[in-house]
């Protein structure tokens, strides 16, 4: 299980999106939904592409405790 975080492009600080298990079944949504950032107060986009990147990173490193999604990449972190 890992915490998925979206990196705020304004401050660089992580926004917690929720826990994700490597074998989780994910309900998908179409398009992009805005996430209000607790750090800068702006809305940042969260999309199905971001979720897919997070899943790929977690499947590649199931021991990770965090997955940081930054733009078009995701990084598994201990």
Neighbour order of strands in the largest sheet: 2-1-5-6
The proportion of residues forming helix, as a percent range, comes to: 10-25%
Low-confidence stretches: none
The structural class is alpha+beta
Mean pLDDT: 91
Number of helices: 1
Overall geometric form? globular
Give the beta-strand count.
6
Terminal Cα separation, in Å?
A: 11 Å
Biggest sheet, open or closed, and with what strands and sense? 4 strands, mixed
Provide tags for this entry.
4-stranded mixed sheet, single chain, 78 residues, 6 strands, alpha+beta, two-stranded antiparallel sheet
Short summary:
By secondary structure, the protein is α+β, with helices and mostly antiparallel strands. The chain contains one helix and six strands, in the order ββββαββ.
Describe this structure in words.
With 78 residues, this protein is an alpha+beta fold. The chain has one domain (2-23, 33-77). The protein has one helix and six strands. The chain has one helix at residues 48-60; strands at residues 2-7, 14-20, 32-36, 43-47, 66-70, 73-77. It has a four-stranded mixed beta sheet, with helices on one face. Strands 3-4 form a two-stranded antiparallel ribbon. A hairpin with a 6-residue loop joins strand 3 and strand 4 (43-47). The longest helix has 13 residues, at 48-60. The chain is globular.
């Amino acid at each position: 299980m890992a915490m998925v975080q979206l990196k705020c492009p304004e401050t660089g600080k992580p926004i917690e999106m929720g826990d994700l298990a490597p074998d989780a079944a994910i309900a998908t949504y179409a398009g992009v939904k805005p996430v209000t950032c607790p750090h800068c107060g702006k809305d940042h986009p969260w999309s199905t592409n971001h979720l897919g990147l997070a899943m790929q990173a977690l499947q590649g490193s199931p021991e990770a405790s965090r997955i940081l999604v930054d733009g078009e990449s995701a990084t598994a972190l201990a």
